[in-house]
């Protein structure tokens, strides 16, 4: 029987196994997995241990149906569960593996850690600005601690990600029964990092790059520009890969973006989508070499 939704593996131990399997099936990516895998494991372990959201239920929150129907994601009109005081705790767990993974910004990562410890950053305003894509506030906070805006935003995003991933499943049930036809996330408003094909006919589920929520979206429409002209949509895959078209890149020639897509229809075991994306870095490089940009920036598609 075909799966109707993506079956996820998000436990720290499950991610470790997924990384081990990646190294076996794609030994050419062993160095990538060794460098960046510990960050994924640390994030999952932190989520397993952090308990501030335990006990919260969706019944405590109310969906504004009108605003949602107008395309406003949940975080925008329902707000965030306040976790800014816990950001330094996340930094203690995530910044060490981040320094090892991203050696080019080690000094910046260390400066961010020092500023968090010294309360040099307005974490509450910074997190709100991150989710709402308020570049003005983000730039002010970055200048406040003398960090380049892209680096500040990247580090902040990695620290906020586990909290947003934990809040997302609390809010997500509120969308049940409500139509969402947009290519950005109905929970946080970010764009998809990856897609999975599941169920009869290969229904497409988009995976959010920020809060990890997934939602159904038309398979033949670009989630970035909403173009559905079939002449503008194409895909390619690595013909030498044992997975063949099971791992592919969907291209939009209207907005020149691409989306990594994995066919999960015949897959029995759960999948960790971030490890899967890491295993498709060669396809990222090929797509970017053809002049396309990813639908959403992630650590993995920025390596090329």
Extended strand count: 7
Count of alpha/pi helices? 11
Shape: globular
User: Into which percent range does the helicity of residues fall?
Assistant: 40-55%
Query: Radius of gyration, rounded?
Result: 19 Å
Describe this protein's structure.
- By secondary structure, this protein is of the alpha/beta class.
- It has two domains: 12-175, no CATH class; 192-302, FdhE-like fold.
- It has eleven helices and seven strands.
- Strands 1, 2, 3, 4, 5, 6 and 7 form a seven-stranded mixed beta sheet that branches.
- Helix 7 runs antiparallel to helix 8.
- The N and C termini lie far apart (38 Å).
- 38% of the residues are buried.
- The mean pLDDT is 90.
Main traits of this protein?
single chain; 304 residues; alpha/beta; FdhE-like fold; 2 domains; seven-stranded mixed beta sheet; globular
Can I get a quick summary?
The chain is of the alpha/beta class and 304 residues long. The protein has helices spanning 12-25, 30-49, 65-69, 74-78, 87-101, 106-117, 123-132, 135-144, 149-171, 273-278, 281-289; strands at residues 192-198, 203-208, 214-216, 233-237, 247-252, 257-263, 293-294. The protein has 2 domains: 12-175, no CATH class; 192-302, FdhE-like domain (FdhE-like fold, Alpha-Beta Complex).
